[in-house]
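Running log. JK asked me to keep both predictions on one page so they can be read side by side. First protein, sequence followed by its tokens:
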Amino acid sequence: MIKAVSSEFGINYTVAHNLTIIQPIDNYTCMTYNVYMETKNGATRDTVYEYAENEYGSLPEHLWTTFPLYSVFRRADNKKWYAIVMNIQGRKLGLDSDEYVDIVDVKCDPFEKDELLCKPGFLPAYHLSRKTWITVLLDGTVDSDTLFDLIDKSYLLASGRKNGVKS
């Protein structure tokens, strides 16, 4: 979702990707705006799937028959999770919407987590430890490179080793 503001009339809109807004000017005239959000560099569910498979050889595991769109990604060596993709109702995430949104939860350093939570597209972890996990919206808000970096760090943190070295 993006916010659009009409500078001419001071009207705020919340819009989805590729949406046409029709704004009444008076009883006889309307202005039409075509809103397009560029998402080719933004992270999506498919972005996570492709990156996990290409980088780590991980395929999504669907552990719950009642939640077929939930996908877990594990390390091959110790079977620990490093990412889980879900679709969650926006209100459950603290968003102002009943629509379902795709998210990914990744393990995260607590200090980095606090910094990320100040940025758009990042939320406290959904249904996992909020101390060591963070939720990333997969709606194009967060760019792919940032998500890839977080997945890499999560993969490392799931090793049970600090900075990749056994402690």
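And the second, directly underneath as requested:
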Amino acid sequence: MNPNEQAERLVNAYADAILRLSYSYLKNTDDAQDICQTVFVKLLSEPREFESAEHERAYILRMASNACKDLLKSPGGNGPAVWKRFWRFPRRRRRTGRSWRRSTRFRRTTGR
């Protein structure tokens, strides 16, 4: 298969999936299209053989996912603001006097 046919096959098979995945990470159409183009350039510049179509699809989508994460982590890639929106960690609960009172009350009534 010549390179033009290979490129056309890859675009027809995976462009939509890469764009949807990239947009879900980046929430920006232009950046999602850039990621899609980057993935296809890497695929065509470094051809690989895959065991099956499923392995090829998984590899390509993982490439797109990693490219999105790299863009988000980059200094100009809206990294911190976007990551904070997606990865919110629960705040640590401070021990209040009320929980301490409950525990002492429990100890007094049960004899522990």
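Observation for JK regarding the second prediction: Helices lie at 3-26, 29-45, 53-73, 79-86, 97-110.
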